Amino acid sequence: MDLRQLRYFLAVAETGHITRAAERLGLQQPPLSQQIKALEAELGLVLFERHARGVALTEAGRLLQADARGLVEGAAALQQRMALFAAGQRGPLALGFTSSAAAHAFVPRVLSACRRLHPDIALELSECNAAELTEALQAGRLHCGFLRVPVARPEGLDFETLFDEPVLLVLPLDHPLAGAEGEPVPLARLRDERFILVRRPGAPGLYAELLQRCREAGFEPRIAAEVPRMLTNLNLVAAGAGISVVPASMRGVHAHAIAYRELAAGPALHAPMTLVWRRNALPGPTATLLALVRRLAAEPG
Question: pTM score, two decimals?
């Protein structure tokens, strides 16, 4: 028994006539009669009483009609839902982001636009650091995400840099360099400072670039702490545990306790905004989000 046979059965039940049902279905009468007989044989039941004016449902036929209608309508609804999913207009979308990515106005703008333009896409949001986000994508728990500098590029994941923004030096408000507002700070003046980094030991990322610039400036930075998230980093800076650098979009966090300063000219430190997604999550809502993100990233401002 399959959906085709059930559709044939329902057409005969609704018209009360094999020939009229065949015309509705675009079939010849003999093949339709054969399908009805095959269904009756498979079920071991007589579904129709034949008479001169057509056919009428037996008690077994009436019982099958109720269930068959639900199955056929359910299959049609399922087919429609899957078509909407394939078109990227419906379905779940698990999206992760790092705290530094979410601090940029672009990410909330994307999420707001997605909810407004694609209300049938069910966004499932989670915050994690770059390594956790990458692992969640690999494990299939996320479809896509926003981060800064990738910590790894595993097979099966695609990465796209959307734009870059400057990096700022962050200092406790009582730090001697905090008062030099408007004056860029040379990296060489940070030789004796204790740095707080947001990364896993030995992992590449935004702070790997900072370490390299320090070495190019002639010193090996002293690491006070490595923490999993950018906001933890800023909390420690505010507490006077050390200094760090953050994307410019985070300026203003803990403004009562942190000074934000530009770094002096030299090889520029930058913080990219990176979109990452699972290749096998396409097509579907992930493809819709990718198109939306690219369109918004290309708009001025």
Answer: 0.69
